[in-house]
Amino acid sequence: QVDVAAMVQLFGYVDVTDTGFIVAVLSIAFNPLFWNVVARWEHRTRALSQVFGSPHAACYCLGAAILVLNCVRSHCFTEAMKSQPKLEGWDCHWTYYSGLAISAIGTLFVISSFLALGFTGTFLGDYFGILMEEKVTSFPFSVLDNPMYWGSTAIYLGWSLMHASPAGLLLTAVVAISYTIAVLYEG
Question: How many angstroms separate the Cα of 170 from the Cα of each of 44, 126, 164, 173?
């Protein structure tokens, strides 16, 4: 049997009806939905490539839009955490530095993924007909499938721990669920 007492206690610290929390959930869910719908639409129609004059220009514009949306998501995530109570027992050096370490590992995965894939590889270039010479199997892909998604999730987890935020932990779970659905959809 599963002891749900800890989860019930955690939910006692989170107001899921708070407007900021709801906006954060919506922004987290919207991002992968947006880029998957737009990329598949481009793959079927080549409309963005025609509008922007080339597949590369269209891919760079989509990548820029994704980066802006990620900044909005991170801002909403942070504001939702700040508007909710901290878990006082976690507001200590040990939790802060654990969160910092988890965020650093996540950042390593995100940055190394980007360096291995390049801009167009990271931002759905294959849907624009921009294909890589071969599948990337070097680090971090040699140790983890979808390292950009799981690195990003780790960053949010670390950020939540650094702020001793139960709301952040719940939002991190939403990030993980959104990415899991995206992986299933993309696969």
Answer: 36, 33, 12, 5
